[in-house]
Amino acid sequence: MASKQDTTVAVSYDELVDKVETGYVDAPQTPKAGTASQGKAVSRYAVNSVHRRECLAEFLGTFVMIVFGMGVNNQVVNSGDKNGTWLSINMCWG
């Protein structure tokens, strides 16, 4: 039977004292969406900034959620509980 070797490395706290948390500073840069490579056509709706893409995705996701939720609210209220009840509203928003 082969024995397992301990692969942990002991690091003293003195080595970690001067290290600064840099977050995403050292992260590799992702290619921009708007840069054309080798003659490929670039969409006019492409967003160059990663931060803007994330904000736009969050906005669109929230928009879709609100549209579905408000649609169910309107369906239940306007139909007089014929096409759904309070349970439909709770299931949609939940």
UniProtKB/TrEMBL annotation:
GO terms for cellular component: plasma membrane. It comes from the Eukaryota. The keyword Transmembrane applies. It is found in: Membrane. SUPFAM superfamilies: Aquaporin-like (SSF81338). Transmembrane segments: none annotated. It is a multi-pass membrane protein. Gene3D superfamilies: Glycerol uptake facilitator protein (1.20.1080.10). GO terms for molecular function: glycerol channel activity; water channel activity. Keywords: Membrane, Transmembrane, Transmembrane helix, Transport. InterPro entries: Aquaporin-like, MIP/Aquaporin. PANTHER family: AQUAPORIN OR AQUAGLYCEROPORIN RELATED (PTHR43829), AQUAPORIN-9 (PTHR43829:SF9). This is Aquaporin.
